[in-house]
């Protein structure tokens, strides 16, 4: 898959492998996003909620998946992008973002690729599922 014009149904985007989610990652993302929910940065708050430890903000995973897309195409080619959160991303997890072309279609006067996207962990847990529509021409 070298050119957008050479895409076919079933083609896969190059995966994006992220480093381990650390407490620093969560604190920096909280500051950047304004999401200071203590369940993501305070172990006591997480334990009071019945969890063993803090976990990543869902929007952090969505941002990683967006980075997968913008590492592949320029932002102006993204026509739509949506996600559904399916599981939490625990501390020290190593997310892997992937995407696959599910259809090539015409719409609004342009050729487009429809993609299925996901964020998964090394143990196979899928934490986020998404879809995107990308302009090819």
Quick recap:
This protein has 137 residues and is an alpha+beta fold. The chain has a domain at 11-21 and 58-135: Roll (Thiol Ester Dehydrase, Chain A), CATH 3.10.129.
User: What percent strand?
Assistant: 25-35%
Could you say which overall geometry the principal axes of the C-alpha atoms support?
elongated
CATH architecture of the domain at 11-21 and 58-135: Roll
Q: What is the helix/strand order?
A: EHHHEEEE
Q: Numbering strands along the chain, what is their spatial order in the largest sheet?
A: 1-3-4-5-2
Classified in CATH, the superfamily of the domain at 11-21 and 58-135 is Hotdog Thioesterase
Query: Whole-Å distance between the termini?
Result: 15 Å
Q: Over all CA atoms, what is the radius of gyration?
A: 17 Å
Low-confidence stretches: none
**The CATH topology of the domain at 11-21 and 58-135:** Thiol Ester Dehydrase, Chain A
Total beta strand runs: 5
Which bin fits the share of residues in helices? 10-25%
Kindly provide the name of the CATH class of the domain at 11-21 and 58-135. Answer: Alpha Beta
Helix-strand makeup class: alpha+beta
Strand count, sense and closure of the main sheet? 5 strands, antiparallel
Mean pLDDT: 94
């Amino acid at each position: 898959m070298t050119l957008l014009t050479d895409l076919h149904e079933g083609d896969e985007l190059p995966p994006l492998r992220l480093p381990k989610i650390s407490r620093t990652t969560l604190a920096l993302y909280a500051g950047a996003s304004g999401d200071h929910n203590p369940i993501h940065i305070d172990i006591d708050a997480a334990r009071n909620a019945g969890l063993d430890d803090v976990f990543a903000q869902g929007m952090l995973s969505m941002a990683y998946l967006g980075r997968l897309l913008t590492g592949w195409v320029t932002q102006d080619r993204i026509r739509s992008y949506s996600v559904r959160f399916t599981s939490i991303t625990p501390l020290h997890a190593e997310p892997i973002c992937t995407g696959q072309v599910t259809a090539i279609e015409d719409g609004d006067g342009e050729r487009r690729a429809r993609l299925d996207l996901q964020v998964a962990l090394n143990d196979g847990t899928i934490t986020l599922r998404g879809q995107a529509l990308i302009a090819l021409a």
